Amino acid sequence: MSDNNxxxxxxxxxxxxxxxxxxxxxxxxxDDYTPREFVILVLKAVFRLSEDTGYRLMLxxxxxxxxxxxxxxxxxxxxxxxxxxxxxxxxxxxxxFATEPEE
Length: 103
Ligand code: TYC
Prior knowledge:
Elements: E1 23-29, H1 36-47, H2 51-64, E2 66-73, H3 74-90, E3 96-101
Helix pairs in contact: 1-2, 1-3
């Protein structure tokens, strides 16, 4: 049975509200104690960087005091920064990684 008097509202287009996820930087800090080779090892193991890229980023942090390693979501940035800092701590080095929101 159909009722021809039934008013049907025109279909409304539903705009999915997809917020762009906020991005975070993982920053590597220089220190006077961690061996260069160990910094590269951590960059390769945690951030999957090549020897060459690891070397260049390590040298940038060494020269300028800090260096951005990756830009990613908050979750990933915090996990990677903690993993890398913990790895150094376990080995007895003060190597530091931190996260910072991107402007
Ligand atoms: N400055 C350290 C040294 O001379 C090496 C180093 C580089 C440490 C980069 C940390 O983020 C860093 N042994």
